[in-house]
Amino acid sequence: MTVHDIPLSSLAGQPASLGDLSGSTLLVVNVASKCGLTPQYEGLERLQERYRDRGFSVVGFPCNQFGGQEPGTAEEIQEFCSATYGVSFPMFEKIEVNGPGRHPVYEELTAVPDADGEAGDIQWNFEKFLVGPDGAVIARFRPRTDPEDPAVVAAIEANLPG
User: What is the pLDDT of residue 79?
Assistant: First the structure.
């Protein structure tokens, strides 16, 4: 089983899965609208625009577990992302990424260590995971790593399909 096989709901409440994006390289990010790191949406959207035609997509999972920084409804989150940052990448349902209510997608993701060899709980909003076209988790980048950091860009480019 890979992260592609786990049932999800879109932010609009429709049944979905990361498998709907099978064959694409994904950057999976837990996001929040009221965080000091929220401006990372700009870099995430630039990555989406730069690589979308090469089999890449950013994927956002709103999460309210860090300082209550994503309190909104699905509609409020969608409106904020669209109006404030022009987000065009797929957004999924608001979930928990840590603790006993951790979503199964994040059970798989948090098992993967970062560059320092540390796996486990998500540290804060905007932690990033690179997932290959086959659903394998390739890399983990901590929240303060800018989406357009050379290490992130290099990992994306090295793992684009085809």
Answer: 95
Active-site residue among 8, 28, 29, 35? Answer: 35
What is the rounded distance in angstroms from the CA atom of residue 14 to the CA atom of residue 156?
28
Q: What is the tens place of the pLDDT at every residue in 14-51?
A: 999 999 999 999 999 999 999 999 999 999 999 999 99
Q: Is residue 110 part of a domain?
A: yes
Q: Annotated catalytic, 81?
A: no
Q: How many domains are there within the chain?
A: 1
Query: What is the extent of the structural domain holding 112?
Result: 3-156
**pTM flag (> 0.90):** yes
What is the enclosing helix (H) or strand (E) of 150?
Answer: helix 150-158
53 inside domain: yes
